[in-house]
Design goal:
With 165 residues, the protein is of the alpha+beta class. The protein contains four helices and five strands, in the order βααααββββ. A hairpin with a 5-residue loop joins strand 4 and strand 5.
Length: 165
């Protein structure tokens, strides 16, 4: 699959710059053993995230990252490379989050985002809604996590009040 390239930097990116069907390979991240244990200690203290012996006895067969840690690291890549710094307006929510395969310490994970659908808001002509599929894949190319969500982005060229796209 060919990957898209942005023609505008995040500092000048608006709704119109996110065409439906486009996929961007955004970047990579790695979670170290120390980071996995620290995150789990603070936010998700399940034994298979914290303790080698307990993790080895679990169905994972070894230490694995919290899915919430993986999602947070993915979000950092998305914020750094995809979301507009001038027109991003947040999100009304996540429609689907799936942890498909465990993330192990030291794995190099890749983040890509596909715009599945984009439409102007019917009630607020200054913005559009972008439905995305975010995917985190492992070094073997197998998906580790998928997230479907909606983002709000200001339009470069808002429609006049009362006019709909």
């Amino acid at each position: 699959m060919p990957f898209a390239s942005f023609t505008t930097p995040a500092s000048d990116r608006y709704f119109e710059d996110y065409p439906p069907g486009a996929t961007w390979r955004l970047g990579e991240f790695t979670l170290s053993e120390e980071e996995i244990i620290d995150f789990a200690s603070r936010f998700d203290p399940q034994a298979f995230h914290l303790d080698h012996t307990a993790a080895a006895r679990s169905h994972f067969g070894g230490l694995v990252a919290s899915g919430w840690h993986t999602a947070s690291a993915m979000m950092r890549v998305v914020v750094d490379h995809f979301i507009s710094s001038v027109a991003g307006m947040g999100s009304p929510g996540v429609d689907e989050l799936r942890w498909l395969k465990p993330v192990r310490p030291g794995e190099c994970l890749t983040v890509q985002v596909t715009v599945e659908k984009a439409r102007r808001s019917a009630s607020k002509p200054d913005r559009g809604l972008i439905h995305t599929l975010m995917e985190v894949t492992g070094p073997d190319g197998a998906p580790r996590m998928t997230v479907r969500s909606v983002g709000m982005v200001a339009c470069r060229h808002p429609l006049p009040a009362g006019e709909h796209a």
